[in-house]
TrEMBL record:
Organism: Rossellomorea pakistanensis
Gene: upp
Pathway: Pyrimidine metabolism; UMP biosynthesis via salvage pathway; UMP from uracil: step 1/1
Transmembrane region(s): none
Signal peptide boundaries: none
Protein family: Belongs to the UPRTase family.
GO molecular function, one term: uracil phosphoribosyltransferase activity
Annotated positions binding uracil: 194, 199-201
Protein's recorded name: Uracil phosphoribosyltransferase
Amino acid sequence: MGKVYVFDHPLIQHKLTFIRDKNTGTKEFRELVDEVASLMAFEITRDMPLEDIEVETPVSKANAKTLAGKKLGIVPILRAGLGMVDGILKLIPAAKVGHIGLYRDPETLKPIEYYVKLPSDVEERDFILVDPMLATGGSAVEAIHSLKKRGAKSIKFMCLVACPEGVDAIKEEHPDVDIFIAALDEKLNEKGYIVPGLGDAGDRLYGTK
């Protein structure tokens, strides 16, 4: 059964305050999202396996730890998810990056897949699916479906701000997926925005509104 992790680290909460602030400009917003993604990556990779090796220090030989070679994949949901990728890559530069593009059908309001590009060895990788917002959960649920139908067996979802409706949607459709969030907000409003939220993450990242 997947778990929900809400990060309460002071640095994450401090930076998230400025991400929420409507007066934060595009440049600062983009930098803050990048920084919070890096901080969250510390926790989301906590269970990565290690193996013992021997190294030669300037003084003597030492028994040490190194990552056991588990392959990672980072997959942003286009377009807002792109804002979180570089922050994770700063810590895990060897990770491969895939992309999933979705749009909302104007009649059914259901997410429709229009682009998917993933590493060739999907079944061998642990995937971190990233998107700044988890609102209705429709896009995240569909993106997880896209990964699974291409062979992904290990998936974690990471976002900045979520609401209970979105969390419940993932838990119902994909109970095996762990969810990592910086803040669990109150609710969705009648327009589908998270309250209090941070507005439209894509527009604020790229200055398109």
